[in-house]
Amino acid sequence: MKTSQELYNERLTRIKKAIALEKPDRTPVIPYADAFLANVAGVKLSDYVSNLEISNKVQIDGAKMFRFDGSSGTFSNAAMMGMIFFSNIKLPGRELPDNTLWQVDEREYMTVDDYDTIIDKGFEEFQNNFYASKINVDFQKTQEIITKAPQFNKNMRDEGYPLYYAGTISHPVDYLSGGRTMAKFMVDIRRIPEKVEAVMDIITDANIKAMKQSIQNAVDPISVFVAMGRGCPDFYNPKLWERFIWNPLKKITYAVIETGLTANFHIDANWQRSLDYFKDFPKGTCVFETDGTTDIYKIKEKLGDRMCIKGDVQAAKLTLGTPDEIYNYSTQLIKDMGRGFILASGCGIPPNARPENVKAMVAAALGK
């Protein structure tokens, strides 16, 4: 029987070979699972999001139960999600019933004048003041995460599971379209495009600095989660998309690559129109993680010889499908994607997914 360290090394090698477009012993499986694992464990979501020790145990037990190859998280960061979108977050057990999934409460918390404040005072100062005065950031929970995260990460590694993400970096569009609301942000990029662009440049530079600091003490770092919640090309005309989405994303990506880590694009919605842009990046330095909306076969056609593809067992399949359907779909993906593929859920595994379907997804990679 292999030790946890032997399994850790085996899984880490498997993941790194897939990212490098080499041939691993088999396709790795690294879904994003949080609320789903809490439900399987019989843990109330209110306890999962409020108690970090409980969420760490849920993540570790889930990785063991479903035989994942790596972990996308080691504790619940639901309480911090509002910080990414400059919005309040509604949590189970606080604003919501105990087993209702957390929700971003998007409203107009930023004003047009806030663009000038960021330009005059910098993003870090604005960010701190904004969190303290405008949205319900739990600073005690934030400090608890900072203090305890290294031990939670170690707990996961000690059980034999590499941490897939060494850090996170958000595109400035997530902050601005959340804080201004998506509708107001769309007006801003037409009425005051130069000001918005200047602010996005400032945020990009600040986030790159923060990302580099956050990964300094990472053990066996693999990738950086590049958050792209509001950047879908279908939301913008091509010129606006290139100016306000692609240009910051390109700068962020090269900054991640310069650290020696992989840029993992967490791609929500349909990016098919702009796949050719991603050919800019050096071979083997990025992962295109799709949520099932962008046709994975188009991704393979355009980018399969340049970067690893991660996905794409969709939420609807995992919830409404049968184990045989999931197994057959996953097996076909593994066959068709070939080298440079990580099997995963399309975005996160939904809380009400059928456990037998998740097991069938993993079984396809195990060849069982």
CATH topology name: TIM Barrel
CATH class: Alpha Beta
Sketch the topology as an H/E string, one letter per element. HHHHHEEHHHEHHHEHEEHEHHEH
End-to-end separation: 19 Å
Largest sheet: 6 strands, parallel
How many domains make up the 3D coordinates?
A: 1
Low-confidence stretches: none
Structural classification: alpha/beta
What's the count of strands? 8
**Radius of gyration of CA atoms, rounded to a whole number:** 20 Å
The chain-level mean pLDDT equals: 96
Q: Fraction of residues in helices?
A: 40-55%
Instruction: Kindly estimate the percentage of residues that lie in beta strands according to DSSP.
Output: 5-15%
CATH architecture: Alpha-Beta Barrel
Quaternary structure of the protein = single chain
Shape: globular
EC number: 4.1.1.37
GO molecular function: uroporphyrinogen decarboxylase activity
Domain Uroporphyrinogen decarboxylase (URO-D): 178-365
Pfam family, one: URO-D
Molecular structure report:
This protein is α/β, with parallel strands linked by helices and 368 residues long. The chain has a single domain (4-366), classed as TIM Barrel (Alpha-Beta Barrel), CATH 3.20.20.210. Helix content is 52%, strand content 11%. It is built from 16 helices and 8 strands. It has helices at residues 4-19, 35-41, 45-50, 52-66, 81-84, 113-121, 123-133, 139-158, 172-179, 182-191, 193-214, 238-258, 296-303, 315-320, 323-337, 355-366, and strands spanning 88-90, 103-105, 165-170, 223-228, 262-267, 286-290, 308-313, 341-345. The strands form 2 sheets. The protein has a 6-stranded parallel β-sheet with strand order 3-4-5-6-7-8. The longest helix has 22 residues, at 193-214. The chain is globular, with a radius of gyration of 20 Å. The model has no long low-confidence stretch (mean pLDDT 96).
